[in-house]
Amino acid sequence: MNLNDPGVYCRTEIAFGLAEGAKGTIIDEHEAAIRDAINLCIISKKQADVNTAEGLKHLKRDIAAEVNKILAEPEKKPEDANADGSDDPPPPKKDEKDAKAEPDKPAAPVHPEWDSDSGPVLKVYFSSFATQ
């Protein structure tokens, strides 16, 4: 049973621990995208995945990774569009090394108490988390 199953209900409240120097307003500026990313992370899980402490740790790492991606993306401006009118990034230059494929799950952070090693969001806190 997935959390996106109509018969399953999930309610949560989340807070972030930010890196030193990161401003809380950065979260507010991207609130809609962050909420969407969190919802997508949660509904992609099975209920059994989040019923254990280890499962919740994985979910926290997934959420931190997705939110940090959003916060790292520069805002696109109309003049940033490609000549063909698409928003797709240009192909890499020949001298650039191929990026490694991203793993399905973010690796455990080096600092064991953190959910991410870098980015504005280092820690994800569930103030409440309930599934039914």
* Count of DSSP strands: 2
The whole-angstrom Rg is 17 Å
H/I helix tally: 3
The CA-CA distance between the termini, in Å, is 11 Å
Mean pLDDT: 80
Task: Catalogue the unreliable spans.
Answer: 92-103
Relative strand content: 15-25%
Short description:
With 132 residues, the chain is an alpha+beta fold. It contains three helices and two strands.
Structure notes:
With 132 residues, the chain is of the alpha+beta class. It has helices spanning 25-29, 31-43, 53-72, and strands at residues 10-18, 121-131. The protein has a two-stranded antiparallel sheet. The longest helix has 20 residues, at 53-72. The radius of gyration is 17 Å and the shape is globular. Residues 92-103 have low confidence and may be disordered.
List the helices and strands and how they pair.
Blueprint: E1 10-18, H1 25-29, H2 31-43, H3 53-72, E2 121-131
Antiparallel strand pairs: 1-2
Helix pairs in contact: 2-3
